[in-house]
Specification:
binds NADP nicotinamide-adenine-dinucleotide phosphate; six-stranded parallel sheet; globular; about 280 residues; Rossmann fold
Length: about 280
């Protein structure tokens, strides 16, 4: 049986190199703005990775970092300023924000044509209405990875485990729009262990290290693990990979595709700004 790695590292590198070539030909002075807050260690690492990647392809990037004690008003004021500032073609807010902040309200303030991480209510509504502008970067990254390996979705049974607003819910809608028959499982699902083997494609985004066990799978399934937990551990038991026809490794699967999607959407936002001039 084939046992093929869905190699996010290589696939994302191809996307990044194409973008780099594009901006070598047509340099831009438009920038990406990232707002973050608090002392989440992961956030600092991700912001830095995104900034470096943007700069590598030729897009300037500024990270606006706020203390843990930031107020809702301060963050919302920053988003409004960035919306109004033509220097920035793209704006994203790094998740998670401190617990006292209503994160979704901040996402919702980002102008749709600058929402390159695709997390506002408007961007989600656009996906539902088939007039997609920008999609949540992780969900888009997974769709791009499946496409890169010619994995057919039309008419296939897909199990989406996790229904967060950032990953599972928008991805379930995007899979449906792509022609898959989608079942969504979550923390209240009664028999996750028993149902997994019934799906050709299983996508997991729950944030629980190796919660999904190898013995729940059967030979030949396609496994996509968006989970990224401390110690480079996914949400799926890595022993499940041996049974899979295709699988994403952790790390090197979904993670790099998220950043590549953020960059390709930022490049699109730059084009939109240029064309609106
Ligand atoms: P989240 O907001 O915490 O949502 C978790 C989802 O999983 C919820 O829908 C929850 O169900 C469900 N869930 C929790 N425990 C479950 C269980 N025992 N069985 C079935 N479902 C369960 O998490 P998230 O932001 O979507 O992130 C999920 C994972 O993806 C994390 O590991 C995160 O680090 C990773 N992630 C990776 C990237 C990347 O670029 N690689 C980007 C974003 C996220 P309820 O809705 O019922 O509570």
């Amino acid at each position: 049986m084939e046992n093929i790695i869905l190699d996010g590292k290589t696939t994302s590198k191809n996307i990044i190199e194409e973008l780099k070539a594009k901006f070598e030909k047509e340099p831009t002075d438009k920038r990406l703005a990232i707002a973050s807050a608090g002392d989440d260690y992961g956030s600092a690492v991700y912001c830095n990775m995104k900034k470096k990647k943007a700069e590598y392809i030729g897009i300037g990037c500024d990270v606006f970092h706020f203390e843990e004690t930031v107020t809702q008003e301060e963050l919302e004021t920053k988003v409004r300023e960035l919306n109004a500032d033509d220097t920035y073609a793209g704006i994203m807010i790094q998740h998670p924000l401190p617990k006292h902040i209503n994160e979704q309200n901040c996402f919702n303030l980002i102008s749709p044509e600058k929402d390159v991480d695709g997390l506002s209510a408007t961007s989600f509504g656009y996906i539902v209405q088939d007039r997609q502008l920008f999609a949540p970067a992780t969900a888009l990254g997974i769709m791009k990875l499946l496409k890169a390996y010619d994995i057919n979705l039309v008419g296939e049974e897909v199990l989406m485990v996790g229904k967060s607003q950032i990953v599972g819910l928008p991805l379930a809608v995007m899979l449906m729009k792509a022609g898959a028959t989608v079942t969504v499982a979550h923390s209240r699902t009664k028999d996750l262990a028993g149902m997994i083997k019934n799906y050709k494609i299983v996508i997991v985004a729950i944030g629980k290290p190796e919660l999904v066990k190898a013995e729940w799978f059967t030979e030949g399934q396609i496994i996509v693990d968006a989970g990224y937990n401390e110690g480079n551990i996914g949400d799926v038991d890595h022993l499940a990979y041996e049974k899979a026809s295709f699988y994403t490794p952790v790390p090197g699967g979904v993670g790099p595709m998220t950043i590549a999607s953020l960059m390709s959407q930022t490049a699109e936002a730059i084009d939109i700004m240029k064309n609106n001039k």
